[in-house]
Amino acid sequence: MLKASPFIIFPSMLIEEKPLRHWIDNFYGYGSWQAKFWFVGYEESGGDVPGEVAEKLNYFYNLPGRRPNTPEFCDIRELYRHVAFRVDGPRADKFATLNDHRFGSHATLHGAWKNLAAFVHGYQNKELPDLLTYQKNAFALSSERVEAVIPLYPLPAHHHAWYYAWLDLPQFPFLNSRATYQYHVYPGRMHTILQKINDCKPDVVLMYGMDNINLLKESVHEFFPGMKFKMVKAVKHQFPQHHRADINGTKLLITTQIPALRHNRIETGFNWYAFGKQVNAK
Q1: 179-235 pLDDT, tens per residue?
Q2: Is the pTM of this model over 0.85?
Q3: CB burial of residue 48 (10 Å; 0-12, 13-18, 19+)
Q4: Dist. CA 137–CA 104, nearest whole Å
Q5: pLDDT (tens digit per residue) in 224-237
Q6: Does residue 172 contact residue 247 with C-beta atoms inside 8 Å?
Q7: Closest by alpha carbon to 95, among 195, 117, 271, 86?
């Protein structure tokens, strides 16, 4: 039996044309283009509930000084203050917003962010801090210019479901399926990311959770002719298999692995602090 989509249960008018278009065209994540470490995930998290999506889109659209056709970041802490925490169960009364959940006094440690922070400290050969404290006070803070968190595909989306096909917005025909959406946005977004790598020269760009490795490598080769990738085999419980290219001082890494345990099983994880050290040693 097919499950009903939340986009049918809730009014589609929550998600409006202009904020949606602005987000797709201009939202590139959190942090700063001047950050030393760029973490490019497959897509923005969330997307199961249209209210949450609308709150993110509307916040970004209503930012002062909004500029069309400009790839921009926003402050993750401020955006999360404008998004309600929507989880049933014991945690429902603990947090009012996503900011409370991730950055407040009783914040919960993010399963992936903690490993990205560990990677940064391993690469810099720094002692690992208390990761929850680091998450609350420093992770992806634009003023620190350490981490940038960038979705390859911008719309909040659950990896195993695609709810945007139910939106009553015929001016976005590419949203009819995840495949047509990705085909539509990929060329421009990948070109922008590569152009920004060329312009800003971060120390490391780690693209993780990718299932389109060959396409990504082709895009890099087209933008940087003559660039060669080296495949680095995994070391169990240490670091994942990945493809590496050195681009004018930037280490570009592409892996299918995500910086979190799969199904919360410890045997599926890696030591991302050791991974950072390994990348810097090569």
Answers
A1: 999 999 999 999 999 999 999 999 999 999 999 999 999 999 999 999 999 999 999
A2: yes
A3: middle
A4: 10
A5: 999 999 999 999 99
A6: no
A7: 86
Place of tokens 């080769």: 221
Q: 117 is written with which tokens?
A: 């922070």
